[in-house]
Design goal:
Number of domains: 3
Shape: globular
Oligomer: single chain
CATH topology of the largest domain: DNA Cyclobutane Dipyrimidine Photolyase, subunit A, domain 3
Distance between the termini: 54 Å
Number of strands: 5
Bound molecules: flavin-adenine dinucleotide
CATH class of the largest domain: Mainly Alpha
Strand order of the largest sheet: 3-2-1-4-5
Number of helices: 23
Helix content: 40-55%
Order of helices and strands: EHEHEHEHEHHHHHHHHHHHHHHHHHHH
Length: 544
């Protein structure tokens, strides 16, 4: 075994070599010491899925990102060591076997990751390993932002912007030829001893705990190069960037109408700080450009906003015990949840979105609005926590802070309070896709329906349904709730929950669950739609 000392950079998120302060610090530490080698590691932790749900698509994205990371590390004359096992067992072993003196890593705010890190810190102390932690997953360090606000969570986007607008953002770090390792600093990965430990190799997809039949089209392949290329492609559309306003992008275009940088930023294949600086440079070339919250920079700031709030609340992903979340007596119904999660609600716009999510792992932000509102306060009155779990599993960009923060927003549990403004599962989608192309793609059983019926196929007569080769209740589900009725009922429930929250009413109102259940099992009835309330896109506080 090699007797030289080791410096480790532990990749968790941050799967990149560009703008990676922890990696650069590790490289520089090694270069300063003649008898030190670098070993960049990734730990495939079998216990991880106890805390974090992973779809097949997401495993593939991770596996592709690790392969690209290894390729990129080769350009620095090093390799990625992928270790199988739990950090609490593997860290003490490698600290000893590799004679580790220093380990660098990116800090994470999720409570389960913090618990893991607390154990690793104990082991590091016992083995005299110095730890160096870097805040490089966000543009701002959320803990410093909180400190600058007397450790109070800024509950409004605008208050957050006021806190950070004059803060200087350090430049993104470049990785250059000076970071290439000389032979003396390279770990002998190919030596006999280390080759024997073949458990350090990159994982094949077949090794990962996924069902390959659940893989969808590889629309957004993982990796640093993919992330950087995608960012450059987006930034080259200067006029589009200058004029970008989120409410004017379509939730149901066949090709994405926003950047789809989110999976890359989430896994850290792309540095949010690099994106911030590049975006600023593009904006500086225009005399006039859109502004937060609706601009592209505004979108990146939503991410910072939620990270800051999440950093202050260990129970950010839960309702009970979460200091910023309103306690709402949601009603669990496994059948309703299952129908929603699998795109079988009988509302084609909602079902198309949920099917796109399951197949491709990404959906537009306003599509997320529509389905999140539908599951919670709008229609099904199921807790946002269940929706969050489904998104966590299926979204390539699933992120602890952003997922919970946005779910709380949409369910009017925190940040947003206009619970009476409900998205229509019919009218909202029609605005940007009147012909229903999006529905035809993701709910192909409805493809022969004419445009005036495709959002409301239950309105077709029995004869028409047969002619369009899709009978409602047989080939496509009946609506599981009647939106026109439940939305008013749910607004009443939300009103009562808010009154209890504000101390204007005692808890213990009679359970209103009868309504939804009866509607669901009642034979289909035609209800004349009432005029739908306007979507709340124009309200800047709701355009997240
Ligand atoms: P763009 O519009 O191109 O924006 C650029 C970047 O800004 C995004 O990549 C993302 O990093 C950030 N961003 C944009 N909108 C938001 C937002 N509202 N909140 C925070 N950051 C934002 N985003 C995630 O990255 N992970 C999640 O787990 C997640 N869960 C969500 C759950 C719900 C219920 C809702 C309503 C939104 C959620 N979002 C989440 C936020 C948002 O929908 C996505 O970030 C965005 O759609 C990603 O697509 P894009 O990269 O094309 O975004």
């Amino acid at each position: 075994m090699d007797k030289r000392k080791t410096v480790i950079h532990w990749f968790r998120k941050g799967l990149r070599i560009h703008d990676n302060p922890g990696l650069i610090a590790a490289i520089e530490a090694v270069q300063k010491n003649k008898d030190h080698v670098l070993r960049p590691i990734y730990i495939l932790d079998p216990e991880w899925t106890q805390f974090w749900r992973m779809s097949a698509n997401k495993w593939r994205f991770l596996q592709q990102s690790l392969v690209q990371l290894d390729e990129n590390l080769k350009t620095l004359n090093t390799r990625l060591y992928v270790i199988r096992g739990t950090p609490k067992n593997e860290m003490p072993r490698i600290f000893k076997e590799w004679n580790v003196t220093l380990m660098t890593f990116e800090s994470e705010i999720e409570s389960f990751n913090q618990r893991r890190d607390a154990l690793v810190k104990i082991h590091a102390g016992q083995h005299n390993v110095k730890l160096d932690e870097f805040h490089s997953h966000t543009v701002y360090n959320p803990h410093l932002v909180l400190q600058s606000n007397n450790n109070q969570v800024p509950m409004r986007y605008q208050s957050f912007i006021s806190l950070v607008e004059h803060k200087k953002v350090a430049p993104a770090l470049e990785i250059t030829s000076k970071h290439k390792l000389k032979k003396e600093h390279q770990a002998p990965k190919d030596s006999k001893e280390e080759a024997k430990a073949s458990c350090y190799d990159l994982p094949e997809l077949s090794e990962l705990p996924l069902n390959e039949t659940e893989l969808g089209p590889n629309k957004f392949p993982g990796g640093e190069k993919e992330g950087l290329d995608r960012m450059e492609k987006m930034l080259s559309r200067k006029k589009w960037i200058w004029e970008f306003e989120k409410p004017n992008t379509a939730p149901n275009s066949i090709e994405p109408s926003t950047t789809v940088l989110s999976p890359y930023i989430t896994f850290g294949c792309l540095s949010s700080r690099l994106f911030y600086h590049k975006l600023k440079a593009v904006l500086s070339k225009a005399s006039k450009y859109s502004k937060p919250p609706v601009s592209l920079m505004g979108q990146l700031m939503w991410r910072e906003f939620y990270y800051t709030a999440a950093a202050a609340e260990p129970n950010f992903d839960k309702m009970v015990g979460n200091r910023i979340c309103r306690q709402i007596p949601w009603q669990y119904d496994a059948d309703l949840l299952d129908a929603w999660a699998h795109g079988r609600t009988g509302y084609p716009f909602i079902d198309a979105i949920m099917r796109q999510l399951r197949q491709e792992g990404w959906i537009h932000h306003l599509a997320r609005h529509a389905v999140a509102c539908f599951l919670t306060r709008g229609d099904l009155y199921v807790s946002w926590e269940h929706g969050q779990h489904v998104f966590e599993e299926l979204l390539l960009d699933a992120d602890w802070a952003l997922n919970a923060g946005n779910w709380m927003w949409l369910s009017a549990s925190a940040f947003f309070y206009q619970y009476f403004r409900v998205y229509s599962p019919v009218a909202f989608g029609k605005k940007t896709d009147p012909y229903g192309n999006y529905i035809r793609k993701y709910c192909p059983e409805l493809k022969d329906y004419p445009s005036h019926l495709i959002y409301e196929p239950w309105k077709a007569s029995a004869g028409e349904q047969r002619r369009y080769k899709c009978e409602i209740g047989k080939d496509y589900p009946n609506r599981i709730v009647v939106h026109e009725m439940v939305q008013d009922f749910n607004k009443g429930r939300m009103k009562r929950a808010y009154e209890v929250h504000n101390g204007q009413r005692e808890e213990g109102e009679p359970s209103p669950k009868v309504f939804i259940k009866e509607e669901r099992h009642r034979p289909f009835i035609k209800v004349e739609p009432k005029e739908e309330p306007a979507d709340n896109d124009e309200d800047p506080e709701n355009v997240c």
